[in-house]
Amino acid sequence: MNKYKIYVAGPLNAMAVDYLKNVSNMMTEAEHLRRLGFSIYVPAIDLLMGIKFGYTGYNDYFDNSQPWLKAADAVYLCAGWENSKGAKAEMETAMTNGIPVFDNPDELVKHFQSHGLIADMAELQQEIDRIWFRIQADLDTMISKQIKEN
Hints:
By secondary structure, the chain is α/β, with parallel strands linked by helices. It has five helices and four strands; from the N terminus they run βαβααβαβα.
């Protein structure tokens, strides 16, 4: 099954305790989306890479996350995104690249359910066409056989 890729954006930059709270909030919202069946990318988890490899600059993180954003099927904005320069920039990048943006998980699900229905209808039509062509081929064979026998 192909899962839709969701980039989870939200406020991060803050003093240490607030930063950790923001990371926790983003991860909680992302897990909710993952349980709804989406594949998620949370730039906040880059914190672990930063700790391990000594990232010190904002761009060490931001530059890494942007290709993931551009590959996403949608962006989900966590609570408090309005107060984050980074989340606002990510929202603008998404909109510039035609990537839908949501701040409500129900709306996100509805959006992809409607797209899924369209995809399911196209797959159904292809299957109907394949079956129809097989039936036509079988009928042609049966008719040819009947003609030869008479």
